[in-house]
Amino acid sequence: MREHAARVLVVVNGSLSEEGRAKLEPVSDEILVRDNVGFDIWAHKDALDHVGEAIGEFDEVLLTNDTWFGPVRPYGPVFERMGERPVHFWGMTDHVRQEPNPFTGKGVLPYHLQSFWIAVRREMFLSEAWRRYWAELPEMPSYFDAVLKHEAVFTETFAQAGFTHDVAFPEGDYPTEHPALFNPDLLVEDGCPLVKRRPLFHYPPFLNRHAVSGRRIVETMAEHGYPAELVWSNLARNVQPKVLNTDAGMLEVLPGVARSADPIRTPRLAAIVHLPKAADASRVLEKLRSVPHRFDLFVTVTEATAADAAHRAVEVLALPGLDAVDVRVVPAHGRDMSALLIGCRDVLDEDRYDLVIKIHGRTPGQRSENARRYMTRYQLENLLDSPGYVRNVLALFEREPGLGVVYPPMMHVGYSLPGRAWSFYLPRAKQICEDAGIQVPLDGISPLAPYGGMWICRPAVLRRLIDLDLDYRDYEKPRSKSVPALAKVMERLVSYAAGEDGFHTRTIMTGEHASISHTSMEYKVDQLASTTPGYPIEQVQFLHRAGWMGTGGAVAMIRMYMRVNHPDVARRLHPVLHPVGRLARFGLRTAKATLRNGRALIKGGRDD
Fold first, then answer.
1. % residues pLDDT > 90 (the chain)
2. Which regions of 248-354 does DSSP assign to beta strands (E)?
3. Which run of H or of E encompasses 311?
4. What's the CA gap between 206 and 212, in Å, rounded?
5. Angle at CA of residue 393, ends 233 and 465, nearest 5°
6. Staple partner for 193: which of 71, 143, 239, 252, CB 3.0–4.6 Å?
7. Angle 152-160/128-135 helices, nearest 10 degrees?
C-alpha cells in the first residue's frame, strides 16, 4: 500500500510475535496491538481513536482487514478510477439487498458495501454523523454481530445521513449476487486487486451448490503473478485441512508416464519400510522399484527372523536405485508409527533427506480378504505405481516448496470410514495437539489423514510429532477399549502437524484408482440422495438435524420430511411428533444412564 498511502497504520488483534513485528515494521508507519475482541470493526474504531484529530491531515481514509489476498492486480487503476467519482465513500465490492435476511431468517439484509474495503473522504470522516457512529458502536462478540451490527448497516446509515457512495466492482456486472464469494476469478480478470479468502475455506457443500472452484481461483491468481505459495502457507495454518483440500480441489490424479523432465536438483530420498511379518518383505519392497532416483532404505521389523527375511529380499530384488540399507529391530508397540517417529528419529533429521517415503506391510485384521487386498493395492499403487508416476509425485514437491505431504485420499471401497473417522480418537487428538502446539483447526467429522499409514513427506512436517518425545511405552495397547490406540491418533494428525508450520497437503491417485473411487462414490451418493429432498447441502443439513436414529432421529426425520414436503400436515402433527421425539431421546438417555450405573455396580463387586 505504500505507493498509494501517506500513512499505514496496522492494528493487530491479540498477540504479535517478534517475527511478525519484523515483517510488519518495514511496510507500515505504526503498529497497534490490542485485545482480540470486536473483530476488525473494533480494531478500526481503536485505530481511529488513536489517530484522533490528526485524521484531518488526510483526504481519504481506507478501512480494510486481512480477509483477502492481494494485490493480485495493481491497486493504482482502481484508486485512479474511483478517485474521479464525486462520492463521500466507496467500496471494492457490494452485496445485494436480501429478504428475508439470511442471517436471521426474517426482516431484510440491506444493500451494502462489503466492509473488508471501504474508503471514506474528508467531508464524511470529519462529520458529526461519523463521530457519533463510532462513539455509539455496539459490542460485537460474534461474527454475526459484526455483520448485522456494522457491515449490513454502515452503508445505509450514512446514505440516510446524506452521504453518497459507489462501488468499484458492482455485483450487477456479474452473474451472481455475491461475486466476491462466487466469482472471484471474474473480478480478477476485470482488474480487481483483491481475492477474498472465504472461497477457499467456506463450507464445501455450500460452495459446491454454487459451483465455486477454488482450484480455478488460485490458478487465476497465479496467472496474474500472485505467488500461490502465500495462499497455501496462510490457509494451511488457519483452515481445516479437509475443508481446504475440498474447496481448493487439492487432489492430483497423476499419469503413469512422467510429465516433466528430470528435476533441477535430484532429491535426497529415504524409504522407511515397516515389516511386521517376514512374509511381507518381498511383496512390499518390490514396490520400491518404482522410485526413479537413488535412495537409502531403512527397514524396521519387530523380530529377528523378519530382519533376516528383509536382508534376503533386498539381495534377491536387487533394487536399481538402492544405495544404503539399514534394518532395525524395534518393539511392536505402536506398529509403523512408533517405528517411524522413535525407531527412525535420526533418519527424520531435516538436514539429512529432502523427502521420506513411508510404507509398510501391515494389513487390516478385521476385514474381508478382498478388502485387505484392495487396501494394500490402493495404498501402494497410489504412492508408487510406476517410475513415471513417482517422478510426477516428486515433481509436485519441486513445484511447490510449501508442499509438506502427499498420500491417497480417504478409502471408501471395502471400508466405512466416511462419516466416522474421528470417532473416539478426537479427544486424545485434541490433547496431543495441545501438547505439540498445533493450533490448526480440526475438521469436524473426519480428519484429512493418511488412513493406512503410507505417505511421502518432507521430514520437517513430522517435527512436532517427534518433539513430543514419546517412547515405546506410550504406544502400548490400551487396557480399555474406550481408549484409542496412540498410533492411530498420530496417523490422523500428520496433516495438522504439517499445517502448523505452514506446509500444505495434497492427495494423490492414479487414473485407475480415481476411476474406481469416483464411480463408486457417485453411485453411493446417488443412492443416499434419493432418500432426502433438495441439493446436497440441504440433504446434509437435513440428515445432520435428524441425527442418529437411536436418539429420536426417526421421529426427527419424519418431522423434517413432512416440513419440507407437506408443511400443512406437519403443522397439524407437530403437537404429537414433538413430545414423542423428546420422549425417545429421554428414554435413550435414561437407558444409557442405567447401563452405566449397572456397569459401575458390577465393577464394584455388587450383585444387585
1. 77
2. 251-254, 269-275, 295-301, 322-329
3. helix 304-317
4. 9
5. 50
6. 71
7. 150
Collapse the DSSP code of 251 into the 3-class scheme (helix H, G, I; strand E, B; otherwise coil) and give the result: strand
3-state secondary structure of 40: helix
Residue type, 499: G
Question: How sure is the predictor about 549, in pLDDT bands with cuts at 50, 70 and 90?
Answer: very low
CB atoms within 10 A of CB 257: 11
Grid cell listed for 143: 461474527
Question: How does residue 170 score in pLDDT terms, banded at 50, 70 and 90?
Answer: very high
Q: Distance between CA atoms of 6 and 485, rounded to whole angstroms?
A: 58
Q: What is the DSSP string of 55-66?
A: GGG-SEEEEE-S
- Amino acid (one-letter) located at 532: T
Report d(CA 187, CA 179) in Å as an integer.
7
**What pLDDT was estimated at residue 600?**
34
- The residues that bridge with 299 in the sheet, in sequence order, are 273, 327
Residue 332 amino acid letter: A
Length of the chain: 608
pLDDT of residue 544: 82
User: CA–CA distance from 594 to each of 546, 585, 589, 599, 600 (Å)?
Assistant: 25, 14, 9, 9, 10
- The arithmetic mean of pLDDT across residues 311-328, rounded, is 92
Cα separation, 391 vs 388, whole angstroms:
5
Inter-residue long-range contacts of 308-316, CB under 8 Å, 24+ positions, other chains counted: 308/278, 309/275, 309/278, 309/279, 309/281, 310/275, 310/278, 310/281, 310/285, 312/281, 313/281, 313/282, 313/285, 314/285, 316/282
Could you tell me if 99 and 174 are in contact, meaning their C-beta atoms sit under 8 angstroms apart?
no
Please enumerate in sequence order all residues whose Cβ is within 8 A of that of 311, keeping only pairs 6 or more positions apart, or say none.
Answer: 325, 327
> In this model, does residue 588 exceed pLDDT 50?
no
Residues 6+ apart with CB under 8 A from 186: 174, 175, 179
Taking residues 446-469, what's their average pLDDT? 96
Grid-cell match 436418539, residue found: 551
92 phi/psi in degrees, rounded to 5: -80, -45
Those residues whose C-beta lies under 8 Å from the C-beta of residue 229, and which sit 6 or more positions away, are 400, 401, 402
Q: What share of the chain is helix, strand, coil (3-state, %, to 5)?
A: 50, 15, 35
pLDDT band at 599 (very low <50, low <70, confident <90, very high): very low
Cα 8–Cα 10–Cα 14 angle in degrees, nearest 5: 175
The C-alpha R_g of the chain, in whole angstroms, comes to: 28
243-278 pLDDT per residue, tens: 999 999 999 999 999 997 777 789 999 999 999 888
Check: CB of residue 192 under 8 Å from CB of residue 68. Answer: no
Identify the pLDDT of residue 188. 98
Lowest-confidence pick of 178-192, 224-238, 402-416, 554-568: 554-568
Rounded to 10 degrees, the C-alpha dihedral 207/211/212/213 comes to: 120
pTM over the 0.90 mark: no
| pLDDT score at 479 | 84
